[in-house]
Amino acid sequence: MTYRASPRDGIAWVTGASSGIGRGVALELAKRGYVVAASARRAEELQALASEAAGLAGRIEPAPMDVTDREATQKAVAEIEARGPIALALLNAGGSFDDAPGDIGGAGFRQTFELNVFGVVNCLNPLLNAMRKRGKGQIAITGSIAGYGGLPGLRAYGPTKAAIINLAAEAKFSGDRVGVTVQIVNPGFVRTALTATNRHPMPGIIECDDACRRICDGFERAGFEIAFPRRLAWVLKALNHLPYSLYFALMRRGAPRRGD
Which of 34, 148, 157, 247 is labelled catalytic? Predict the structure, then answer.
């Protein structure tokens, strides 16, 4: 049977917990009774988050770290595990950084890959090793429906999320052999500080609290992918099964643009 974590099994760990989806999921898990190790670089934001969780069924314990630092991340995971086994993890830290106009592959591009891809891998490695020894665990990784196929104007963000979806699928094969459940979370547009900077239409945008409830509900159900809003996800998946000539024609006509 597919393993599903519960608060009695151990700690829930959330990265990127200082804002947006990570922050909301940490609070939602604490409401559901988990002790949540909340990680991000901004320690003061994590302290504020822990205070906000006071009085909930569970609690939030700050665990500051920079997921792009491989050695520091391994050490931080060991420190969390010393408090109790990590039963559930959401590897959520991510962002989007722009290059200078007319440039591609510069500092912003590399920073986006470093955080969105290598930041996840740095966490995934020690987690899988710890959970493999126990023969159980649950890991979810935050991707995006933007990773289903190429979209105009997303620069590095879309490719990093495509890589994450592929990585999560590969990790599921490994996890299935040792009792570790692996899931991918593919949100559409969620109202956060990141999307607040967008200047293009955001079809189907949902509030962050709603998104976080859907994600936590998805942890409790079977299934590899947690995707929402479903209609938008299905449309984008269907578009990516079309011949490229038709796909490009349709996407030029209706896809959101961030600008070149």
Answer: 157
157 classed as catalytic:
yes
Q: What is the DSSP letter of 146?
A: G
> Across-strand partners of 185?
142, 226
Using CA atoms of 160, 161, 163, 164 in order, give the dihedral in degrees to the nearest 10: 120
Tokens of 87: 């039963």
Helix crossing, 244-254 with 230-239: angle to 10°?
140
Question: Tokens 């959401």 — which residue?
Answer: 90
Question: Could you state, in order of their start, the residue ranges of all structural domains in the chain?
Answer: 7-254
pLDDT tens digits, one per residue of 175-189? 999 999 999 999 987
Residue type, 199: R
Q: How far is CA 96 from CA 92, 182, 183, 194, 228, in A?
A: 13, 24, 22, 8, 20
The pLDDT tens digits of the residues spanning 207-230 come to: 989 999 999 999 999 799 999 988
Tokens of 16: 């990127």
Helix axes 43-52, 20-31, angle to 10 degrees: 30
- Residue 85: burial class (beta carbons within 10 Å; 0-12, 13-18, 19+): middle
The list of the chain residues with pLDDT below 50 reads 256-260
Whole-number CA gyration radius for the chain: 18
C-alpha 136, offset from chain centre = 20
pTM: 0.90
Looking at domain 7-254, its CATH class is: alpha beta
